[in-house]
Each structure stands twice: as C-alpha cells, then as structure tokens.
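Hey, quick one: can you model this chain's 3D structure?
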Amino acid sequence: MTPVTVRKVENKTDLNTFITLPWKIYKDNPYWTPPLLSMQRHKLDRDKNPTWKHLEGDYFVAWRGDQPVGTIAAFINHRHNEYHNERIGFFGFFEVYDDQEAAHALLKTAADYVKAKGYTALRGPASFSTNDECGLLIQGFEDEPVVAYPYNPAYYQSLIESMPGFVKVMDTNAYYLTLSDAGDSEKIQKMLRINQKNNERRGIVVHAPNRRDLKAEFVTLKDIYNSAWDKNWGFVPLTNDELDALVKDMSMYIDPRVTLFATVNGEPAGFLLAVPDLFQAVHLAHPRPGKPEIFSLVQVLWYWKVRRKISRIRIPFMGVKEKFRGIGVEAAMFTELFHRATAIAPKMGWDYGDGGWVLETNEPMHRLVEANRGYVYKRFRFYQLEMGE
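Sure thing. Here's the predicted structure for all 389 residues.
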C-alpha cells in the first residue's frame, strides 16, 4: 500500500482540498450536517476570522499517493495560554478515513508542530476554542448534530486513543430537555411557583432582550459571559471583535422569546441564550461543493420559516456571575425558559431543547437539568498529549 505523507496547506488548491474532503469522508453518513462553504472558508481565513488575531498555526492534509485521506490544523492559542498560564498547543479540523496510519501521521504532525514552537502539550480537538465547535463526539452518533456542536464518526475515538500518549483530559455533556409535555408537568409548575416566591424575596427579575438594541444587549451578555465563565476549564474570554462576529451571526436567528437576561436588584446577573437549531434546516438543504450557495440558503429559509422543519432549540450559552450563584438565578432563568418555550412550542413545531455543552464536573448544573427532566444524550471528549520540554 502506498505510504501516507502529510503536507502543509500552501495554496488555494490545497485549502480547497482541506475544506471539501469531509464531503467524501461522510458521503454515506446520513447524520452528518455539512457546513456552508462560505462560513467554513471565513472560519479558516486568517484575515477575516477575529480569533486568528491571537492564533498562530497551519493546516495540513494527509495524502496516500495522490488521494487526500485526512486533514488537521495545528495551532497555538496565545490568548488561552496567557489566560490559563499554560504552554499548550491545539489540534482541530481532524477529519480522516478509517485509516490508522493516516490518523497517526496527522496527529504526529500536529504534535511535532506544537513541540517545535516550544510548547509542552497538545490538546484537542478544538476549532478554534471553547467558544467554537470543540471536543470529539463519543456518544450520540445516531442523531443529527446540533448547531455549534461537532460531529464525527464513532471510529475517530479509537483512532485517537490508539495513538501513544493521548489521554482524556475532560468530557462535556449535552442534555435533552423535553418541551412537548413539560407544560403539563406538575413538577415544572411547582418549580415555577417556588421560583416566583424566591424571585420576589431575592429581587430577581428575568426579562427578554431589547430587540431594537441587540448590540447593547450583547455587550451585557459578553460582560456576564466573561465573568460567569471566568474559572471554567478551557474558557477563553471573548474579545470585542469576537463579540461583533457573534452578534452578526446570532442576530439573524435569535428569538427574543427564548433569550433571557436576569438582574438582581437591578444589577445584571445572568443570561440564557436559546436559538432555533438551524442545523436541521441546513441538513435538509445539504450544501455541497458545486451547488450554488444561494440555493442552499433559500432552502434553509424554506425549511425554517415556511415548512417549519426545526423541532428543537439549542441553549449554547448560559452564565451567572459568581456573586449571584446559589440564590436561584439559574433556576429562575431555566424555569422561565421552560414556561415560554412550552407555550410557543406547538406553533413553532419544537419538541425538545438541547442544553450544552456542560463540563462533566459541573454538578450544580447537572442537578438543575435533571430537576427539569433533562438527561445526557450526547457526550464530547478532549484529549491531551504531554510532550515535555
């Protein structure tokens, strides 16, 4: 068999191979949701993606003869290292056929790149931080991916874990939250009554954002988010440029009815952001190389707004400032979300919500989700390779 070689992406042709190879790898997978090519190109563009302002790295393609068989990115996130006082590099955009030789060659290339830069460990997958798609799916393969989650074949886990030195460093969970019958749940109704009394006693007010001034609302969100997640494993604060990109992306499909802010005695204390899962519409549109993207976008709108094929909402961000934890702010937002979502679910066609991701070590959140009849249905894993000085 022809041996595997790994080459750095050097030109537009190489980059096109890097971007489009997943369509070949996943061609027989009914669950994979392909990205819009324009969004993928923007994400990988060092000049356009604001995250690249604090990254350095390269993209690589594995070849068996003249056939591409896998891809990987190796990079240093300087903002992460400064924030956590670490000296680690990352790998991401790891895509490969069920080919152990190719997988090992790609992971070794990433490790060699990071070590040559003077860093002592390699962590991933991440594309490009915990604010983006990250982690390797290890549970929940027979389900379409949810917006902002990665998806990969089950064999990726064995490919990585068979690489000497790669060990689990952290798992994250995604929760399934039933909406269709939650409104009839006596437990939920009881929680609403308890929370109402607690809110009055503590001065907690939960409200929707001002749709006319989303930029200001997202500035508040960023401040709470950066404060609330400050001590979380792997967290890197959003920069102003990243916030602007987030506002641009999210403002197109944010639903104020299921986006909530909380104040305590008038002071911003927490937020919960829920969005319709556009991946369901993208999955049906199935964007791909050679198909004009305008056709895909029109189909996404059709399945979202007209046919209403979106049956779930996604809760990608939630946070409460540390000084307001433990007094019921989380529960107040969560139960208010259930109250609002179940009221509009029949009209919108929503059956359930996805909450995540949540660190496996976050016991308070686990208890809160379980109290609302949620359960883990997807799990993601981060790996790390220690290389030493």
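One thing worth noting: The chain has a mean pLDDT of 90.
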